[in-house]
Design goal:
This is Cell division protein FtsL. It comes from Sulfitobacter aestuarii. Keywords: Cell cycle, Cell division. The chain has a domain at 2-77. The longest helix is centred in the N-terminal third of the chain and has 57 residues, at 2-58. The chain has 117 residues and is an all-alpha fold. It has helices at 2-58, 61-70, 72-75. It is built from three helices and no strands. The model has no long low-confidence stretch (mean pLDDT 88).
Length: 117
């Protein structure tokens, strides 16, 4: 009886060691993948910062004004003035459509006990 108990205990220890070995390597692989993803995210943030800086550089008002002056013949762009904008009360909103009444119910002749349905 003791021999069977020793064999079962040994098998359980070997099985648990194998499971721990596999879990250790799976954890290490997951951690390395997470590190790679963090590196990719850092690279994307760096590229985004560079793109935002380039966008700000390209959209400088003095540069855009010079480009509009150079290409005035083709584009016809003029500077904006505050008097070019309208007021909110000048906006013509469409009228609210009236919905047709379909299957009218006469409520004055109905009793409280009657169900129209």
């Amino acid at each position: 009886m003791r021999t069977v108990l020793y064999i079962l205990t040994t098998c359980a220890v070997v099985g648990l060691a194998f499971w721990a070995y596999r879990e250790n390597y799976a954890t290490q692989q997951a951690l390395s993948e997470a590190d790679k993803l963090h590196a990719n995210i850092r690279g994307a943030h760096t590229r985004l910062a560079v793109l935002r800086a380039e966008w700000a550089y390209q959209n400088r008002p003095d540069r855009l004004r010079d480009l509009a002056d150079i290409n005035f013949d083709r584009l016809g762009l003029l500077p904006l003035h505050p008097d070019q904008f309208g007021q909110v009360d000048q906006v013509a909103y469409p009228p609210v459509p009236e919905l047709p009444i379909v299957d009218p119910v006469d409520v004055s002749t109905m009793n409280a006990e009657e169900d129209p349905l």
